[in-house]
Amino acid sequence: MADPEIPIVILDDDPGARRSMQLLLQGRGFQVRSFATPELLIADVKTNNPACLVTDYRMTGHDGLQVLDALRAAGWMGKAILVTAFGSPELMQKAIAHGFATVLDKPCKESALVNAVTEATARNKDP
Fold it and tell me: φ, ψ for residue 67 (rounded to 5)?
């Protein structure tokens, strides 16, 4: 069971995908906030310091790699999961180099997303 004290944030400019991921993770016991734009997400992360970020790769005007770079520059060191409908070995390598713990194909299989977030937050608890 997820620890409800560990906050998760989701960034996706597709409202349907964002809501679907949020409902799935909340249904598994995670505390989840979701955002449509990186500006709102970055302001929230500075205030609330979530344990895990789930972000789409390709969004209007920005991408998930840029978002994680901005969060790291702001001092956030949580785990990050990238979801993408544009997966490739090259993107996988770039995502890992940018600091993503996991890359998932979009649409995400429910179990893959839940397992990735569970693993990311479990590692976050380690000293």
Answer: -60, -45
Its CATH architecture, for the domain 7-125, is: 3-Layer(aba) Sandwich (3.40)
Residue 101 pLDDT class (50, 70, 90 cuts): very high
Tens of pLDDT, residue by residue over 18-77, are: 999 999 999 999 999 999 999 999 988 888 899 999 999 999 888 999 999 999 999 999
- Find the helix or strand (DSSP H, E) in which 56 lies: strand 52-56
Query: CA dist 76 to 43, 73, 85, 87, Å?
Result: 11, 7, 26, 25
Separation between Cα atoms, residue 29 and residue 32, nearest integer Å: 9
What's the mean pLDDT when you consider all of the chain? 91
Phi then psi dihedrals of residue 16, to 5 deg: -65, -45
